[in-house]
């Protein structure tokens, strides 16, 4: 585990040396788009809850994939209101944060959403809405915990690591990837240092961890020691999907996998533009199609 701690600290230094920015060269084009241009379901990307990933920021790559598939991508700029949500087909929440953690990635990590918002989103999904919730390593997992719990999921507010640790974790058939539902037909997906959660009883796994994984739960993000709380990743997952009443939900414990970013002084690719992430674009397209019942 010492090698994992060293690599995590190295990755954090990369992030500090140069801000992660959207890759301007990432512009996907599909010959088999799900919908004609601009005629698909409305996909709203939340940016009203301290989100680390926004439509025109670090989730520009996400937006470009969705638009290339015909979806109408919008920004969500207010609290979650029942009437406004009825104008949306898919709500995307990526790495939301409580204001107290905006510049302080340490415990406590309060919910990014009010109790009323959690209840509103739960009822909206039950009535036919579609939610894609992504929450990365601590503190993002903690900020999303109450919303995830409303659907029966339990987050570990930490970091999920696999030995030997690399900048990108590959899930393949037989090694954690469950190629069904949103992942039907895929053989590999890459994630980039995320969190983990216990799935809801009725949920189906997408990305399964196991005994080769360790969950580290520090008091402060990126600060690890031999005394940092840890537990086995056995029985935990990093992706799952769930039908809720008339609606659907996908929960992912890693958000960069659906981004296309450049990071560090060498502008290293992170996300769908990474050479090992050859299945990630297909997973995003499959996720949106599953959520909109295509």
Structure write-up:
This protein has 294 residues and is an alpha/beta fold. The chain is 21% helix and 27% strand.
Structural topology:
Blueprint: H1 2-17, E1 21-22, E2 42-46, H2 60-68, E3 72-76, H3 82-85, E4 90-94, H4 115-126, E5 130-134, H5 140-149, E6 154-156, E7 159-162, E8 169-173, E9 176-177, E10 188-191, E11 196-198, E12 204-208, E13 213-217, E14 229-232, E15 237-244, E16 247-252, E17 260-263, E18 268-271, H6 280-291
Helix and strand run = HEEHEHEHEHEEEEEEEEEEEEEH
Quickly count the domains: 1
Number of strands: 18
Helix content: 10-25%
The count of helical stretches stands at 6
Strand order of the largest sheet: 3-2-4-5-16-15-12
Low-confidence stretches: 13-18
- Average pLDDT, to the nearest integer? 93
Overall SS class: alpha/beta
CATH architecture: 3-Layer(aba) Sandwich
Supply Rg: 18 Å
């Amino acid at each position: 585990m010492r090698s994992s701690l060293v690599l995590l600290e190295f990755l954090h230094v990369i992030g500090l040396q140069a801000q992660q920015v959207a890759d301007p060269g990432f512009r996907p084009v599909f010959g088999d788009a799900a919908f004609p241009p601009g005629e698909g379901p409305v996909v709203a990307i939340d940016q009203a809850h301290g989100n680390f990933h926004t439509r025109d920021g670090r989730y520009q790559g996400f937006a470009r994939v969705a638009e290339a598939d015909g979806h109408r991508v919008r920004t969500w700029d207010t609290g979650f209101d029942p009437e406004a949500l009825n104008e949306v087909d898919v709500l995307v929440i990526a790495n939301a944060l409580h204001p107290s953690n905006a510049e302080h990635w340490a415990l406590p990590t309060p919910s990014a959403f009010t109790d009323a918002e959690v209840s509103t989103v739960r009822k909206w999904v039950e009535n036919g809405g579609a939610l894609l919730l992504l929450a990365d390593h601590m503190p993002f997992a903690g900020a999303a915990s109450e919303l995830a719990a409303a659907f029966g999921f339990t987050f570990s507010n930490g970091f999920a690591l696999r030995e030997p640790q690399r900048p990108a974790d590959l899930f393949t058939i037989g090694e954690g990837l469950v190629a069904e539902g949103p992942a039907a037909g895929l053989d590999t997906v890459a994630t980039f240092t995320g969190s983990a959660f216990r799935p809801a009883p009725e949920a189906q796994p997408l990305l399964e961890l196991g005994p080769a994984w360790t969950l580290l739960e520090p008091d402060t993000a990126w600060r690890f020691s031999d005394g940092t709380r840890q537990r086995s990743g056995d029985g935990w997952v990093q992706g799952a999907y769930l039908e809720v009443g008339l609606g659907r939900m996908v929960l992912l414990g890693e958000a960069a996998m659906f981004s296309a970013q450049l990071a560090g002084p060498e502008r290293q690719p992170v996300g769908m533009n990474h050479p090992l992430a050859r299945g990630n674009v297909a997973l995003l397209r499959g996720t949106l199609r599953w959520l909109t019942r295509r």
